[in-house]
């Protein structure tokens, strides 16, 4: 208990120190070429990662394959979590690019979000085209990509919407993914990669959040604490991907629930107000939810078919 009290005293002192008036910083000059170059480099790093995570260990198809992986059904490849994963990835990359182009490149808000969201959409459309040679071109994945890009434009273009809503992923490595990383569960020949953390859907929960701190009536009634709490809808699938080993007997299932979540973005905005680090924490927690920092209060669940990882040949 005394540690909690000490922590609260420290935060109060820190917040008092950082609210001390400071000299206004001199505006930094815009560097549009540097911002665009850095964004291009980020896309290059991402593309390199996709090669090692998705394609290097996978044999190409004999012929180009078109979609058939379904949408959000309980018998689909990842129980529908992959659709939200595509939406989140496109959304997160688009919003990152918008911040870079606005704050560093000096682009206007509208131009920055249109350029960044278009680039993100183009990148993931290219991923789908390439997937047709190795897996399959998925129309439902492409729909998720587009939804993420559109959501990024909306939240970047309408500040009031951005104050009220957020889209985040809560992640903690699943048991099966940790087995892949340590080599305890070897990948089948021509199959998975230890680098493929994106396919660890069993460790991911996607959260569409309502920020209580964005509601003026709530904020006026309870004060800054409102910034620390979100209400949201969470969705996740378990034991679909990675495919479980045979000693894991829990049936694959999809979970849809109402959640109360800790809003780390609002907390650090309050704690670090006026500090340079605030920009970093604000952007990071725009798209990531702290692990174990949301609690389901009511929900629904449905089971899917049991599939096991094949033994390596």
* Total tally of structural domains: 2
As a whole number of angstroms, the C-alpha radius of gyration is 21 Å
**For the terminal residues, how far apart are their CA atoms?**
55 Å
What portion of residues belong to β-strands?
A: 15-25%
Query: Residue-averaged pLDDT, rounded?
Result: 88
Any overview of this molecule?
The protein has helices at 2-18, 32-55, 81-104, 109-134, 139-157, 159-164, 175-182, 216-222, 264-271, 277-287, and strands at residues 165-171, 204-211, 229-238, 253-262, 288-289, 294-303. The protein has 313 residues and is an alpha+beta fold. The chain has two domains: 30-157, no CATH class; 164-313, no CATH class. A six-stranded mixed sheet has the order 5-1-2-3-4-6. α4 (109-134) runs antiparallel to α5. The longest helix is centred in the middle third of the chain and has 26 residues, at 109-134. Mean pLDDT is 88; it is low at 1-16.
């Amino acid at each position: 208990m005394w540690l909690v009290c000490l922590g609260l005293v420290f935060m109060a002192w820190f917040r008092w120190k950082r609210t001390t008036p400071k000299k206004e910083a001199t505006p930094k000059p815009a560097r549009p070429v540097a911002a665009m170059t850095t964004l291009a480099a980020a896309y290059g790093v991402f593309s390199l990662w996709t090669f090692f995570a998705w394609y290097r260990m996978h044999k190409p198809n004999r012929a180009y394959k078109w979609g058939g992986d379904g949408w959000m059904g309980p018998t689909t490849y990842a129980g529908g979590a992959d659709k939200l994963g595509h939406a989140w990835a496109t959304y997160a990359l688009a919003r990152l690019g918008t911040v870079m182009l606005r704050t560093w490149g000096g682009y206007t808000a509208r131009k920055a979000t249109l350029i960044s969201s278009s680039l993100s959409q183009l990148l993931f459309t290219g991923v789908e085209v390439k997937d047709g040679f190795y897996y399959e071109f998925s129309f439902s994945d492409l729909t998720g990509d587009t939804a993420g890009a559109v959501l990024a434009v909306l939240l970047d273009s309408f500040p009031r919407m951005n104050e009220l809503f957020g889209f985040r992923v809560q992640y903690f490595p699943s048991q099966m993914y940790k087995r892949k990383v340590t080599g305890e569960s070897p990948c089948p020949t021509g199959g998975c990669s230890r680098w493929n953390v994106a396919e660890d859907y069993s460790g991911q929960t996607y959260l569409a959040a309502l920020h209580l701190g964005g509601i003026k009536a709530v904020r006026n009634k309870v004060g800054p604490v409102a910034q620390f709490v979100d209400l949201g809808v969470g969705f996740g699938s378990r034991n679909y991907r990675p495919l479980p080993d045979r000693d894991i007997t829990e049936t694959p299932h999809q979970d849809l629930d109402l959640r109360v979540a800790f809003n780390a973005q609002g907390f650090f905005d309050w704690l670090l107000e006026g500090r340079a680090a605030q920009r970093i924490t604000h952007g990071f927690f725009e798209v990531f939810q702290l692990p174990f920092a949301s609690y389901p209060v009511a929900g629904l669940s449905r089971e899917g078919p049991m599939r096991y990882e094949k033994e390596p040949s």
